[in-house]
């Protein structure tokens, strides 16, 4: 990690800074994140001016962030401001104050740039090819259309969770009258958005604090087994039910809702109404939640410097590699286990009938199979699964992450059991794990001494299945161990396997 | 980790090798462990000879272990044999075969050495000052008396789980007659052991595969919240109940007992009977299970080279440091957080009335508070707790490990909630965590930029409590953040705190 960059995002409601350590094109990791509820857009009147007290709060926060990034040895700070500053009639005065008093030169993003960086954060962290992104902020909402991973068009309205709350909500709990005004007011803002439509692209991704919070509340309500918002699928049906619950609560009751931060309790309902409106309008039954947005989008522009547009060519492959490197994996060993497992997979297609998707999962699991050694030798298969489930892996669905984690967990011993993860798997996934883990386990034992003594494996699909190892040097240890590990194979395929 | 050592333990039932990476006196970690159920002592007749097939199995295994350690770049192999070889009338023949066919020069341990190394493994991993260790192997059982951590006396009998099974068990499920013969046969072996007595030393520690397995079965039966055998307390009452259950099962039923390996299913009952007999005889109601024994004892002799006897002067302190180093902790930051937290602790004694034990836990938690960053920045407090719970920390009870893990978990945000760990805490421990975490959290935020700008803190115990930071340089960020973190303090102590 040769470089450190700090990215500050001065939003209408929340101000955040992330600090990333990175080596361009090679590896990165999040080192720090700070969040402050500045509410810069609060109290803006008909004159469109940021209020003095809001500006004071923002300047104080920027000073703190600047000091923080300074001591964290950040070489470059990228401070951006979004809709609150963009639309303020006293923008110049505010930007000058921040420069003078906090030594920070803000870059005020245009609405298009705000939409674009949000899009960049999404397509570099979620497997979105054709569809839309929605970014609901405090002061504005951006919608972008994505086609073949490209940024096709965008739409922005100066209505976000904070502005909608200030404009339409005057009662607590919200009165029916206010709620109707909120709904129709939101609808008015988006009346001219005529291209958000599930038929134009099947996938809808949502980002921003409001949407992440809605996902967290939904997860907690339903005992979701993963502690992971990025990639979570929020159903519209559940969102509408949640809106109905929130409508009947007053501020205090909302503050007690698990997953909802106190400083967002007054904004969550207006934010949810915006989201529900857009989903209904576009005909989307489900939304994939993105944990990365504007700030990460700006980061990727630096990380992928030279790429135009700055998109990962192979997001998943990169991300798996990045994770493996963080835990100092043994690259040669992992690569050989991967080759052997994939070779068996290919030669056994007539038995398992799986395709490229399973092959990909098996390969990634092989790359990551030993990362749990970083925690403790004992139970390192379990620790590896924990690390996968809690990692910042990009581009995978939760189901895929669960499958990779289970393959890591069962790569060396034990009978496959998905446990609580079953809730996010499909009915036949446990068998899928069993069949893939059986191959991974044999491959792992063929690499028992981690010295690539088994070069390749030839599979004869009979009953029993015969596997002949091509070796350089004495592979007695490996052959013996691989045969011991073949019990899972019998369970997975209903045939014995003889390895020699 | 400049050195690698492989330690092979050729037991009567199981043969194991561990590979340790280490820098003497500084740091170590387990890199690999292999286990093979050789059953060397199986089938020994009245002539006392190892059988040809048992020797073949042992030679093959030693050859494999030798090859394995070779490719793992082990610079030194220490292969030891215990009672099966020690008592074999054809010992010389066997040792010569292993040397010729596997290139391994076995060292045959005397009964005293076997007891001594087991003791060394125990006192370097469990806080045993005065008491006893029991090591139940396949072919023999060792009992040692420990006084002031020293090795006072020892006792050994050539009866272990495997030998007892061969000698007394001829029915499946075991008949009442066989069971009585087993019990009285075991009692006969230990008739002359007259100094194993709870009044001679209050703590009893048990090691070896049989005892670890009994602990695992007991944990699984009762839904124990930690996945950790080392340090587990097994109650005699529960052991006796388990024996009654095992008595009624046949081999197949035992093979299905969760926590019981198939290759040990026939030995577990005889092993349990030996343990129960010794506990009853010594008047012990509880046994602390040790996960380290003979092999680790031999390792510590190398790791602590120069110490006589090779004991950690400060086992817990070393172990915490070792863990922190594994995760590349920031030493200066951790040390400052520790100093600040302990300084507050000392100055607030009139409020919390805690003593040296709590002070120690707080200090260790401060050292480890950020290790979760190795997993993921997001939720690193939770990951840190996971790492502590799953680490190889030595010298702590499970309750202490849970307390340290909870302090790490709540060092930066959230309300204290012990969750499933409550099952191993005392009733007032959650408040203990709350009060200590409140200090740790303030200390952490006083080190917000990790640059030691806050040098020290003066506490005035009034209402509100006032804390005055002595700083070098501008500490506005830290003071501001520490005040934000003071909500937990109010909850813990019922008073506000003002930091300036």
From TrEMBL, chains A, B:
A molecular function GO annotation: pyrophosphatase activity
Record-linked InterPro entries: ATPase_NBD, GppA/Ppx_hydrolase, Ppx_GppA_C, Ppx_GppA_N, PyroPPase_GppA_Ppx
Residues spanning the signal sequence: none
UniProt domain Ppx/GppA phosphatase C-terminal: residue ranges: 316-451
Ppx/GppA phosphatase N-terminal domain sequence ranges: 24-302
Keyword set, alphabetical order: Hydrolase
SUPFAM superfamilies registered for this protein in UniProt: Actin-like ATPase domain (SSF53067), HD-domain/PDEase-like (SSF109604)
Family that this chain belongs to: Belongs to the GppA/Ppx family.
Name by which UniProt lists this protein: Ppx/GppA phosphatase
Organism taxonomic ancestry: Bacteria, Bacillati, Chloroflexota, Chloroflexia, Chloroflexales
